[in-house]
Batch of 2 targets.
Target 1
Amino acid sequence: MALHANAIRFSLQRICLAPVSLRYSRHAACRPSLEFSFRSNDVPKRIQNVRFLSSKNEKIIDLSYSDIDPVYVPIKKEIVDEQDLQIEDQHSINSEIVIKCKRKNLNHERNQKYDKFKEIPLASKGWKNKKAKDDYFTIHIYNDDYLPQSRKSMYDFKNTGLSQSILHILKQHEIIIPSQIQALGIPSILRGNNTLLAAETGCGKTLAYLAPIIQQILAHKEKVKFKNQFNSPLALVIVPGRELADQIGEIANWFTEDLPLNTKVITGGHTKRQIVNPVFEENDIIIATLGALSKLTNTGIYSMRYVRHVVLDEADTLMDDSFNELMTHFLSRFQFKGCNENSNLTQLLLVSATMPTSLSDILGDIIDMDSLNKIKTDKLHAILPHVQQRFIKTNLGEKPSNLLLHAKKLSKSNTPTIIF
């Protein structure tokens, strides 16, 4: 299909170097999500079903990403060596390969049928063995000629319950139509429910919780004529890493220019200096890494007395083995809302790009699990349609050099890339 002359042409790639997954993405309306996943062969056995619409022999993907402009997305086909072409049989050349592997017997084709009595072969088969070094596979979800459709007026911010002042600020940043997670999550948060927001990366989860929290804080301050105490926030956004904290802080600053709101970002690296020479100021919202916030709270620099909202962004990471003990200890200082309890208690929000497991085991002693309203999108765990992905098996010490090599190749081809 010929590409429209005014179409924006770009190709994104995601490169994952086992045992650490390094993911590439591109976001516009909201902050990029920075995620590390320490896995060696955690590769799905199946590619999720994709809903296609047919129109004049054109393949059209039905999307609801509010932060991706409608664009033609040509995915560059891999250059195949002549030697490889001689090895491949004619069937492989003519077929639509969805997962293309270095070991061609592990390729997966579109609409391929599997024997229900046999195990589906993994593209990463044998990657636990050191001899698998330099093995790779690439995921090609769509053809070169598909046209994604986005910014559909399926939802409206007016139906979410956000105030005109909040909507005006969103409009100033060209955010007019909510994404699915925003349309479903904002009303739940405004009702005061403990809420789990689980949605794909890049769909606007930050604004899905930040906008309603800001609205509730402003309403509370006006209702009770609250006089902000120094270093006594009304809301906490807890994250696992400083880069994510800085990005959320940038989004929060959208609202501080026009609204009577104070925000502060706290990250590690200079915690001792903050303890020795503390700064006392008014803070409505604190966005912080868990370690730094815990230290400053334990030393009495910050008071959690007035906190009404606690957000765990990237909750799946905060609840893994590296964080959950510290996190549960920190959360034990709050009294969270239940199903039929006083609305003045603290609201808990969990935000994640995956559906966290073992929620009851970790949070069962902290909140009433029946009070947690779970909201997830229909594209949760789906692969972003405009991102081509390659997974490469590499040894631990060779990851930096391999990553640099691929980054140089992408730079030479003018491929927009974000590494995190």
Target 2
Amino acid sequence: MSGGSIEDGFQANRLFNQGYSYTYDDVIFLPHYIDFPTDAVNLSTKLTKNINLSIPIVSSPMDTVTESAMAVSMASLGGIGIVHYNNTAAEQAALIKSAKSRRVPFVSDLTFKSPADSVSSISEFISSPYILVTSGGTSKSKLLGFISKSQWEALSDKDSPVSSYMKAIPCSMPSNYDFEHVAAFLAEKNVEFAPLVSDGEEVVDIASKDDVERIRAFPKFGIPSVGADGKFIVGAAVGTREQDKERLEHLVKEGVNVVILDSSQGNSIYQIDMIKYVKRTYPELDVIGGNVVTAYQADNLIKAGVDGLRVGMGSGSICTTQEVCAVGRGQATAVYKVASVADQSGIPVIADGGIANSGHIVKSLVLGASAVMMGSFLAGSHEAPGVYVYQGDRKVKKYRGMGSLEAMTKGSDARYLGDKSKLKVAQGVVGAVADKGSVLRFIPYTMQAVKQGFQDLGASSLQSAHKLLRSEILRLEVRTGAAQVEGGIHDLLMYEKKPF
């Protein structure tokens, strides 16, 4: 700067080496120079050394966040879903199989009947307006026909077997059809719906004209996350116990693309041994280690052979690890420190936790992360597991930490190295999240907001943002409590906050 010695802000290395643990809200970037439009910002990134994403979004492996519906939607948008393992190995493998067996951005909860069965109540049509009839009453048996809700309602004898009134299905589609192929097929055949059937004649899903119209109403998606086999890229979480090796075998058979070794504190002999086992047994399978928050932790896992690192300890909205165990780190500091050492080895970093808005995503990415993992941000969406209930006049879904006592009863205590302990100590809580609608709608808007943040910083890509930070061109400052209040909504009697 000419004409004086005024210094604007701090370089990142100076700011994060003062002995303070900063969260995202504690720090703010100073704007830089803009010479490109918002839509020129490229958010493509790496999840691991070998897996690319078109948007830097990862859904967390929590049992109230990611099962097959979320994994399919994340892949459709260009991100990735990591399926939780708070279930049996067979159940988790089935979720992976379900996600990888389709190329449409939705998952239906289908009901199947055999010809001799009857429909007990209208509630059986809640998940879909159609019930499919197969020879054995399962998705794997021969498809015979269907029953519509309107058909059943018009029956005088509703206890009669479905074979007496079911209708033939005029046509079906291959399950590997993508959304555009599905839309074209339904239009060409002029049918309201058609089953999606795999090569093995298993019914995977139903696609309808209503689905097509609903998806068309959403913002335009990015480039989907598709592997070399033409299927969606899907990840899964596993533990570090001996039985997780058998779980891993089931997942690999179903085509899982990446596994995350799920632990609240990843710098352990258990995880290091598991990393080596995975890389030795399945050399083509990428493995992400963590969670870590220090350069020392990260260095140990990098030396063990990880393809990516997951960063965060106690920063999630439902996590109480820092409060209960007195260990962890502010997420902004953790991401910067771990990314600084990981970058030297070409290892991508996933910032896990603490994301409440698009600004937090911008901060995590610019501080060195290649992607952000989100739980509460995605919980409460249509694609998240669970059913909606009403609390007063608010429509909500359950959201719980994997360290909550409720989740631990399902097996997640292994994540906290507590499955052998007689006394269970919670490191998370159970709560509820308001209905957010579909991730297919709000994630594209969120990514547009992130692009606007990158434009203000003068960064046209994640790679250029990291370069600007390391070259000390981008500057930061710490925000006082008053500055944080001023930077948000304030001094209004009432307001309605709509992000898009």
